[in-house]
Amino acid sequence: MIADTVRTSTYKTGILRNSSSIRGKVVLDVGAGTGVLSIFCAQAGARKVYAVEASSIADQAVRIVRHNKMEDIVEVIKGSVETIDLPERVDVIVSEWMGYALLHESMLNSVLFARDKWLKPGGLILPSKAELYIAPINDLVAEDRLSFWDTVKGQYGVDMSCMSDFARKCIMNNDITVNLVTVEDVLSHQCKFAELDLYSVTAEQLKSVSGSFNCECFGSSPVNALCVWFTVTFPGGGEEKPLVLSTSPFKPETHWKQAVLYLDDPVNVRQDTPVVGDVNMYPSEASSRHICIHVDYTIGEMKKHSKTFSIPDGCSGETQ
C-alpha cells in the first residue's frame, strides 16, 4: 500500500496542509500499520503521536520510528483502539481506514470509537468525509471472456459454444469483483449515492449505507455491470482547498481499484437511456467486516431487477 503513490502522497499532502492544526498537538493514528502516517504527523509538527496497531506489524513500526529518530514523538502502541488506554485525549485523529468498495474490511468503526472516546471537542479528523459513487459500465474484458467459447471451433475444430451459458453463470455472478475499470468502459457520468461525515456518522448508521442513483447513458452500448467507487476528503487547512483522494476510473489508479457488480444479463442502451435505482450497503451476516451490496435497478423500459452482491473470501486488504 505504501507503493500506492496516489494514496500515500495524498495522505502526506493532506496531513502537511493541516500542519497549523497539528503543530504542537496530540495525534492518534488508528490502525497505524508501519507508522508512515504517524511519521507524516510528526513531520507536520505534532507534539505527540500515538500510533495504535493491533497486528504484529506494530513491531516493525517501532523499528521504523526509531530508524527515523522519531521515538520521542511517535509512540507505537500494540493493541486495538477499542482496548488500549491513552494517558490523554487527542486533538487530531488520522487513519487510513478504507477498504474495497469503501466499507469492505474497513476500520471505520474503530475510527468512530476513537472519535467518541479520545477526540477533544472541536478536534480534527483526517480524512473527514467519504462519498460513494456508481455508474453503469460495459466491461469489455467480461464480454471477451464470454464470446471466447464461440471462437474455439474456428481455432481448434472443437465446438465449445455450449459453454457460453456456464461461462455466463461463472462471470455474471453475485461476487463484488475488484477490478480496474477503464474510462472507455464507463457509460455515464458518475452518480453520488451516499456521503459519510466522519464527525457525525454513527456505528449504527453504518449498518445500512444507502441511497438512490439516476444516470443517463452516453451512447449505444451493452450495459453488463454497475461500477462502485469512493472518494475521501481532507480539509484544506487555512486557505487551502480541500484535498480529495479518489478511486474513480477517471482518476489515476489506486490499489482499491473499483468494485464491479455484474448484472445477470447485458442490456443494450442508447444515448440518454436512464439507469436508475437504489443501493444499500450493509455488513454480511457471516462477518461484520465483510460488506454486502444490494441493488434495485431499472434500465430504460425494462422491469425493475434486484441483485445482492458480496466479496468472496480471500479478497482482503494489505498493510500500509
Structure description:
- The chain has 320 residues and is of the alpha/beta class.
- The protein has two domains: 5-96, Rossmann fold (3-Layer(aba) Sandwich), CATH 3.40.50.150; 131-310, Hnrnp arginine n-methyltransferase1 (Distorted Sandwich), CATH 2.70.160.
- Helices cover 21% and strands 35% of the residues.
- It is built from eight helices and 15 strands.
- It has helices at 5-17, 19-22, 36-43, 57-67, 108-118, 140-147, 152-156, 164-171; strands at 26-30, 48-53, 74-78, 90-94, 119-126, 129-137, 176-179, 191-197, 209-216, 221-234, 243-246, 258-269, 274-283, 291-299, 305-310.
- Strands 6, 7, 8, 10, 11 and 12 form a six-stranded antiparallel β-sheet that branches. It has a five-stranded parallel β-sheet with strand order 3-2-1-4-5, with helices on both faces.
- A hairpin with a 7-residue loop joins strand 13 and strand 14 (291-299).
List strands and helices in order, with pairings:
Layout: H1 5-17, H2 19-22, E1 26-30, H3 36-43, E2 48-53, H4 57-67, E3 74-78, E4 90-94, H5 108-118, E5 119-126, E6 129-137, H6 140-147, H7 152-156, H8 164-171, E7 176-179, E8 191-197, E9 209-216, E10 221-234, E11 243-246, E12 258-269, E13 274-283, E14 291-299, E15 305-310
Helix pairs in contact: 1-3, 6-8
